[in-house]
Specification:
By secondary structure, this protein is of the alpha+beta class. It is built from 13 helices and 18 strands. It has helices spanning 2-13, 24-34, 38-54, 63-75, 142-158, 180-186, 189-193, 247-265, 303-323, 345-359, 377-381, 396-403, 421-440; strands at residues 79-84, 88-95, 100-106, 125-127, 133-135, 165-172, 198-209, 213-215, 218-221, 223-232, 236-237, 272-281, 287-288, 291-300, 330-333, 341-343, 364-366, 386-394. The strands form five sheets. It has an eight-stranded mixed β-sheet, with helices on both faces. It has a four-stranded antiparallel β-sheet with strand order 12-14-10-15, covered by helices on one side. The chain has a two-stranded antiparallel ribbon with strand order 4-5. The structure holds zinc ion (ZN) (2 copies). The site of one zinc ion has 4 residues, from loops.
Length: 442
């Protein structure tokens, strides 16, 4: 009921205005008051960060991590539910009338052996599905996301007099494999805990200076599809190709022809990528194998483009097989894809205008869309206006040197990626707290 009444009020205010709206000029003193103790909270948050960093867990195995997050936000006064969509954590803090704001972190690390040389570097290892052993590292900065999420939860819980509404804090598993957000939604996240009015998330950036927040309005990250392609032939002696159908030659033709889908069938102003990341066939110099296996990643923004790419790959693969008299290839499109991240333009604008008042206009930087993927997009697809902000994590001087081509900076997923911790936490918490207050502030 309360929610219905509130929606009515918003309708009167005009849809343009959107949700609760603290003007940027009023937001600044409010955020300064609420964030006054951030410096005191920093040492503890840094401890959280170093602990999470040195105990990374790969996708779908975030058990220790989830336990820590659940305990922490429970201690701040949130009502916590664990094991939502696997290891997912949901914390709800109801604090009077007003909108519901979702704040999301991801929890998983990557099978990367850390090479930062930091005193709190990870020494964790994991056994891979193929039996090999790999190092594990928070090389995508999800440990930083969790730390900022905790800091934001703690500060907002301590300052309940300064805002009104509901916080829905979620920690999702398995972002790196594109499964966690979907798993939480399929576990009836919104039916059980209420559908939020908007969603916020941070993602670390290795090419943005700490102290800065990057943003992209509209499409920011791509649809990510994964395809397995098995090219079939007829094996035999390498000296007698006339008695075989050589799948290696067919596969080679397919790899080249796939690039013509992007260059000849897609609007040049519409971004698309087909990458063959793995190709395996044969065992020895003089044996023509029976089959060749290819693994592809396919990226796009628009749904129509996505379909065109997938249809094109099928057609090219089948065509190459037909032309060689080979059996039809096997094409498996992974049903779990990551949809493109679309930052709601109105919410992005509103959030950025608010942050400009807090951080200073020069600290908000426009980022071009990129072809990476992020399953935060699932919440937007489920009908929640969302914005994912990019958190700068690197020294400004290094970013400048990188832009001038004078220095290399390790990218996300690199074994050497190392955010500058304290300033990154400070800006991350400031950005999230201020963005929540922009909507819920009193
Ligand atoms: Zn990642
Ligand atoms: Zn990530």
């Amino acid at each position: 009921m309360r929610r219905g009444t509130w929606v009515g009020v918003v309708m009167l205010m005009g849809v343009e205005m959107g949700l609760g709206d603290v003007e940027p000029t009023a937001l600044r003193p409010l955020a300064e008051k609420v964030l006054a103790q951030l410096d005191q909270a920093l040492p503890r948050l840094r401890q959280n960060y170093e602990d999470l960093h040195s105990h990374p867990e790969v996708s779908l195995e975030e058990v220790r991590t989830a336990g820590i997050l659940a305990n922490e936000i429970r201690s701040f006064g949130f009502t916590v539910t664990e094991k939502v969509g696997g290891t997912g954590v949901v914390g709800v803090l109801q604090n009077g009338a007003g909108p519901t704001v979702l704040v999301r972190t991801d929890m998983d690390a990557l099978p990367v052996k850390e090479e930062t040389g930091l005193p709190y570097a990870s020494k964790v290892e994991v056994r891979r599905p193929d039996g090999s052993v790999a190092g594990v590292m928070h090389a995508c900065g999800h440990d930083m996301h969790m730390t900022c999420w905790l800091g934001t939860a703690e500060i907002l819980a301590k300052h309940r007099d300064d805002w009104s509404g509901t916080l829905l804090f979620i920690a999702q598993p398995a972002e790196e494999v594109g499964k966690g957000a979907l798993a939480m939604l399929e576990d009836r996240l919104f039916e059980r805990f209420g559908k939020p009015d908007l969603g916020l998330a941070l993602h670390c950036e290795s090419f943005v200076a700490h102290g800065d927040i990057g943003y992209t309005s509209g499409y920011a990250l791509a649809n990510v599809d994964t395809l397995d392609l098995v090219v079939k032939g007829k094996g035999g002696h390498g000296a007698h190709p006339q008695n075989t159908i050589d799948p290696i030659v067919i596969a080679a033709r397919i790899v080249i022809d796939l690039q013509a889908i992007v260059s000849r069938e897609i609007d040049p102003l519409d971004a698309a990528v087909i990458t063959v990341g793995s190709i395996h066939g044969g065992t020895k110099h003089n044996i023509i194998p029976n089959e060749v296996r290819l693994q592809l990643t396919v990226r796009s923004f628009k749904e129509t483009t996505r379909q065109r790419l997938i249809d094109g790959i099928r057609r090219v693969a089948k065509g190459a097989a037909l032309a060689s008299g080979a059996p039809e290839p096997e094409i498996i499109v992974d049903s779990v894809f990551t949809p493109a991240m679309f930052n709601d333009p109105a919410l992005t604008d509103k959030t950025v205008r608010g942050l400009e008042a807090i951080l200073g206009k020069e600290h908000l930087v426009v980022r071009e869309p990129v072809m990476g993927g992020e399953d935060f997009s699932r919440f937007a697809r489920a009908g929640v206006p969302c914005v994912m902000l990019r958190l700068g994590t690197i020294d400004a001087a290094r970013v400048r040197a990188f832009e001038e081509g004078k220095e290399e900076i390790p990218s996300l997923h690199s074994s050497k990626y190392a955010p500058v911790v304290d300033p990154s936490i400070r800006t991350g918490v400031t950005a999230l707290v201020s963005s929540v207050l922009r909507v819920l502030g009193r």
